[in-house]
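Ligand-bound model needed. protoporphyrin IX containing FE.
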Amino acid sequence: MRTEPMRPRPRRAQNAAATYRTGSWAWLLHRITGLLILVYLYFHLIVLSSAIWAGGMTSFNRTVASLTTPPFIFADLALFALIFYHALNGIRLIFLDLGWWVDRQQTVFWGMMTIAALLWISTAIVMLPLAFR
Amino acid sequence: MRQRQYGTTGGAWPWLLQRVSAVFLLVLILLHLWIEHFMHLGAPITFASVKARLVHAVFAVIDYGLLIVVVFHGLNGLRTVLLEIPFLPHRSRAITIGLWVLGVVTVIFGMDILAPFLWGRPWFVLK
Amino acid sequence: MAESTVTFRVFRYNPVTDEKPYWALYPVTVEPGDPVLMGLMRIREEQDGSLAFRASCRSGICGSDAMVIAGRSRLACKTQILHVLNAQREVVVEPLRNLSYVKDLVVDQTPFWEKFYQVDPWLHEDPLSKPPTTERLMQLPESEFDDISKASDCIFCQICYSECPVNGMDRAFLGPQALIKAFRFEADPRDHGTPDRARTLNNQEGVWKCRTTFNCTLSCPKGIPITKGIQALKREMLTVGLGRGGGV
Ligand code: HEM
Ligand code: SF4
Ligand code: FES
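Prediction:
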């Protein structure tokens, strides 16, 4: 018998990622996207309210105009991706809670992801020209 | 046989309301994204255009409804996440109360954003 | 039969002598079809008698020899060595997750059994029924039996408990096994235990903590549709939990 030390820490010897499969990745991503959208929500509210507080109409127009410049259009597209993932997987979760297609959850997951991807691509097709005008 | 009870009884309401709010959000968020990004595609969003839109009550209802539902759903979801962190379940009451306070403050804060469009000026200005 | 030599990379820890766990590597000669358990037994007999692991039936019935093999929780007697080799021709064997290890591959099962007892896993009689004076049959119609027969197959191997990521984060969560056991009785028309079980099922650490990751369903060696049962339990607990007396 040979022996080898465990690195880096013994507790970490078991690779937790190995347990992850479709349903658990779906859950982890759902959680991450949900929390990111929540963070965005607070940014959104703070940016809009400080624009108004800073000087009403004119500063609101200035802020919103800067928010529709190309960098922000790309950021919006990233946000759309988060929302579409969370929303479509959320629909799958509600189906599961209703007891619908529980035996085919992986198929439903990929079906939902296809819809999310199509939604995002059509959004990108509409919005990207705005970034390049 | 029963050694000790894990956790506190209850939890059906937050679970159900998370799903009910999700169904509302699905409609409201898609409407919100449509209104802000696609309804007048390419036309700049200005104070005047938002004001003109909000004259119709239905838009105000969508915006305020979305605000309330999204804050509830987001913070209730955050509560789920927090209660899964080891040792935090013992603080579940404090977490719930804290998030409710945060939620009410956020909704008031958010409503204030639309006030200038509806009533000419924000309810309060922090400066 | 084609014999070949593989390496068993085994998680070893002796609480008396070792400060922390380490890997032990054993060369083992195997034939196609040999299960991991056979390799472990051979190591114990021929190379190192101090290796600790649980096993009994060697045929996937007793549920004793669940362990993490090649990163996933499985029954050592139902897993073929040649199916789980990594690129270095090693079989990596570790104790179950979500339960603390005691010695080598043996874990402390206490929380698992505590949670199992929490759901009152026996048939509760109708408290209002009079005691029978003559012999009473408590048979189930065949159609009703089909609903619960799968859930009755559980062999207490703790694989689902070990694979559940929610259990991994929150050690108080009842876990898939206790919940599917509860389902087995809740779905039984002869049972009247709902009010007793509701305390632990309609609970922040009960059905509502399940996040439907399906890890339990995918890993259960008896093929029990665990998630499906838990989802049915959630819907049942809604009727209990939304009413008065549902708790805070
Ligand atoms: C667009 C429609 C949406 C749908 C259909 C939806 C659906 C859901 C569902 C069903 C859950 C429960 C997940 C579970 O119990 O495992 C959930 C959780 C959550 N949602 Fe949403 N959601 C939506 C939008 C949002 C938005 C806009 C936010 C951010 C403000 C958000 C933040 C969260 C958070 C933080 C969680 C908790 C995540 C967790 O428990 O892991 N959701 N959502
Ligand atoms: S439900 Fe399946 S995985 Fe879980 S303890 Fe029982 S037999 Fe093992
Ligand atoms: S030894 Fe009994 S299940 Fe494997």
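Chain A has a mean pLDDT of 88.
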